[in-house]
From TrEMBL, chain A:
This is Probable cytosolic iron-sulfur protein assembly protein CIAO1. It comes from Sarcophilus harrisii (Tasmanian devil). Key component of the cytosolic iron-sulfur protein assembly (CIA) complex, a multiprotein complex that mediates the incorporation of iron-sulfur cluster into extramitochondrial Fe/S proteins. Seems to specifically modulate the transactivation activity of WT1. As part of the mitotic spindle-associated MMXD complex it may play a role in chromosome segregation. Keywords: Chromosome partition, Repeat, WD repeat. WD repeats lie at residues 247-268, 282-314, 326-367, 371-402, 415-446, 524-564.
TrEMBL record, chain B:
The keyword Nucleotide-binding does not apply. One of its GO terms (cellular component) is nucleoplasm. This is Cytosolic iron-sulfur assembly component 2A. Belongs to the MIP18 family. Keywords: Chromosome partition. One of its GO terms (biological process) is chromosome segregation.
């Protein structure tokens, strides 16, 4: 229940974040263009309701010439958008209600208005046309009143009676053909832009039905679009009877290392359509292995364990050999990461410290710095993809950034904003932005502002400042354990404690200083227990691996849904 | 006395169950939740206190009303336990939380997500303790510590 409600409100929020003007314009072009039947009907002025035209075509005489006075003082221009409100089930022509229109729409031109005005006509001039074809009075009679003279100044009401004669039905009915229906909903190519398929906002900001109702239809296709965008390729029982904590792809994307509560590390390779275990590294640790990391060259694997040690494994063809064990932390080592240069390694632990190690050509490791900036456990460390910049996430709700300054490492920035433990971090492909996920069920995006930036963000001396530019909240119903930013496609995947995997994409039209992300894939029961880790393959776009507390590992194929 | 109260509570649950059966639809939900809560309570009340030889029920650390069960999905429930530690001492409260988590993880038959909190106002550092107890990485690391594991196993062991 939670996750579905979450996703509905998430879509709502995602839609809300669009610039209303542009979406409205798109809707407008989508609706009205289709509603009008082709041919001479188009020349009818607004509301150009073909239904009324066919209704009245045989019962009314042709309108005569207008009196001159009406031309001199014309009626106010009609509102461009059709005013609609609740439709009752009998309303045949269902149009997208406008996102925004002023004055606010009062009644559906086709249905009896729901509001009781005491029998008095609605003062809003719903229709006005110089030809005055179908001006009706408040009682809804089918009489016609010519526009002109004194009647001009009267409130013109057009409360049509419900008409269901077969002609109007034929003209206005939604196409039976499902393809044509799809085309109607989707609009011409490119017109819908980044709006999620067929959800539209009502005046009162509720998600409303699209035309045709919920048929084999829209909500299904939206959630199906989201479900289809993440397809399961394979499920493997990586660490039976214990949890699988972490996954790491090697730099060429051919091998996947997984580590778990059974104290072993398994290396997986693809064979045909399935994934097989190439080797098991079982003797390295006495306790749970929490994280593994490949070196940038792909020849070394570092593993961090709860036994307070970090093991470095060297790859010899298909075999791995433990060449070094790094000790020094007082408690469990929570994370390990290799710098992109390959000569630096960072580890962090429950003892609140981050250690930076340097490795030389003879595989000698030396600790060059111990950073005690955090006030609580440090959960995750990660290196910047291009620069020698280290980021750490902690149980004390902060993220700290470090860089080297005169032979020593210093913390130059603290990112505060999360309300609970920050579990994981991920840099975007350019390294300008950082995504962080937390126990407070949100994902935050932070952006780097260099000194002398155009946006006028104040920087402390020569150090860049990081600011939170986006918060994704309301999408996750439990702790978010991992976030991963794909370096090939720019998609953001999250692993959540509610067993679900979600993928977000940035809207291409959004402001880089205030981006908006929308949920493009949501798989509610990706695993049977908490998802601990998600990892994008560095070489194959769209290939996502995930692991869970139930010891299973799953591979997914992600495809961006068509609407975006 | 215990037997009588046990019999009474059993009879009450049966009566509730029987009356629940005659109702349809949404009225069933609270019944199911109550049943699940009772199931959870049945498991945790026999856990022994780390310091004293009594069970948590006897010390009134946990009561029937402190267990709340909500449904997340079909067959997936969120269990929330709010316990009252006897001693406002840091390590024991976390230890009790640990025992609760381990017991339910091992013995509760239905799929669940567990949240354990100290009932409000009963401890000075309750926010810290709540955060610790609900951090699964810390809990896993704690259970790998042989001393702690020994204590927890002693507390959680089924009475003969």
């Amino acid at each position: 229940m939670c996750s579905q409600a979450g996703s509905a409100s998430a879509v709502h929020r995602a839609v809300m974040e669009r610039a209303p003007g542009s979406a409205e314009a798109r809707l407008r072009s989508g609706c009205l263009g289709r509603a009008l039947p082709p041919g001479p009907a188009r020349q009818l002025s607004w509301p150009s309701d073909a239904g009324a035209r066919t209704r009245n075509a045989r019962t009314r005489p042709e309108p005569g010439p207008l009196p001159a006075s009406s031309l001199r003082s014309p009626l106010p221009p009609p509102p461009r958008l059709l005013p609609v409100t609740r439709h009752d089930a009998a309303c045949v022509l269902r149009k997208h209600p406008p996102l925004f229109s002023f004055p606010p729409p009062r009644l559906c031109w086709h249905c009896i208005p729901p509001r009781d005005n005491g029998g008095r006509p609605d003062p809003v001039p719903v229709r006005a046309s110089l030809s005055a074809d179908w001006v009706r009075n408040g009682s809804g009679s089918r009489g016609r009143r010519k526009v002109g003279g004194a009647s001009e100044t009267q409130a013109i009401t057009t409360i049509p009676t419900r008409q269901r004669d077969s002609r109007s039905l034929r003209v206005l009915q939604f196409p039976r053909d499902s393809e044509a229906r799809e085309r109607k909903w989707r609009g011409p190519e490119g017109s819908r832009g980044s709006l999620p398929l067929s959800f539209c906002l009502c005046r009162d900001r509720t998600l409303t039905r699209p035309p045709g109702g919920w048929g084999p239809g829209v909500q299904w296709s939206l959630s199906a679009a989201m479900k289809d965008s993440l397809v399961l390729l394979a499920r493997v029982s990586a660490h039976p009877d214990s949890r699988c904590w972490f996954l790491a792809w090697n730099p060429t994307g051919t091998l996947l290392a997984s580590c778990g509560g059974d104290r072993s590390i398994r290396i997986w390779g693809k064979e045909g359509d399935g994934w097989v275990c190439k080797s098991v590294l079982a003797e390295g640790h006495q306790r749970t292995v929490r994280k593994v990391a490949w070196s940038p060259c792909g020849n070394y694997l570092a593993s961090a364990s709860f036994d307070a040690t970090t093991c470095i494994w060297k790859k010899n063809q298909d075999d791995f050999e433990c060449v070094t064990t790094l000790e020094g932390h007082e408690n469990e080592v929570k994370s390990v990461a290799w710098a992109p240069s390959g000569s630096l390694l960072a580890t962090c632990s429950r003892d609140k410290s981050v250690w930076v190690w340097e490795v030389d050509e003879e595989d000698e490791y030396e600790c060059v710095s111990v950073l005690n900036s955090h006030t609580q456990d440090v959960k995750h460390v990660i290196w910047h993809p291009n620069q020698e910049l280290l980021a750490s996430a902690s149980y004390d709700d902060t993220i700290k950034l470090y860089r080297e300054e005169e032979d020593d490492w210093v913390c130059y920035a603290t990112l505060e904003g999360h309300e609970s433990t920050v579990w994981s971090l991920s840099f975007d492909p350019s390294g300008q932005r950082l995504a962080s996920c937390s126990d407070d069920r949100t994902v935050r995006i932070w952006r780097q502002y260099l000194p002398g930036n155009e946006q006028g963000v104040v920087c402390n001396g020569s150090d860049p400042t990081w600011k939170c530019i986006c918060t994704l909240s309301g999408f996750h119903s439990r702790t978010v354990y991992d976030v991963s930013w794909c370096h090939l496609t720019g998609a953001l995947a999250t692993a959540c404690g509610d067993d679900a995997i979600r993928v977000f994409e940035e809207d291409p039209s959004s402001d880089p200083q205030q981006p908006s992300f929308s949920l493009t894939a949501h798989l509610p029961q990706a695993h049977s227990q908490d998802v601990n880790c998600v990892a994008w393959n560095p070489k194959e776009p769209g290939l996502l691996a995930s692991c869970s507390d139930d010891g299973e590992m799953a591979f997914w194929k992600y495809q961006q849904p068509e609407v975006l | 006395m215990e037997q009588v109260s046990g019999l009474l509570s059993w009879a009450l649950s049966r009566v509730l169950w029987l009356s629940g059966r005659s109702e349809r639809g949404a009225a069933r939900q609270p019944r199911i939740m109550e049943e699940k809560a009772l199931e959870v309570y049945d498991l945790i009340r026999t856990i022994r206190d780390p310091e004293k030889p009594n069970t948590l029920e006897e010390l009134e650390v946990v009561t029937e009303s402190c267990v709340e069960v909500k449904e997340i999905h079909e067959e997936d429930y969120l269990v929330i336990i709010r316990f009252t530690p006897t001693v406002p001492h840091c390590s024991l409260a976390t230890l009790i939380g640990l025992c609760l988590r381990v017991k339910l993880q091992r013995c509760l038959p239905f799929k669940h997500k567990l949240e354990i909190y100290i009932s409000e106002g009963t401890h000075s550092t309750e926010e810290d303790i709540n955060k610790q107890i609900n951090d699964k990485e810390r809990v896993a690391a704690a259970m790998e510590n042989p001393n702690l594991r020994e204590i927890v196993e002693q507390c959680v062991i089924e009475p003969d």
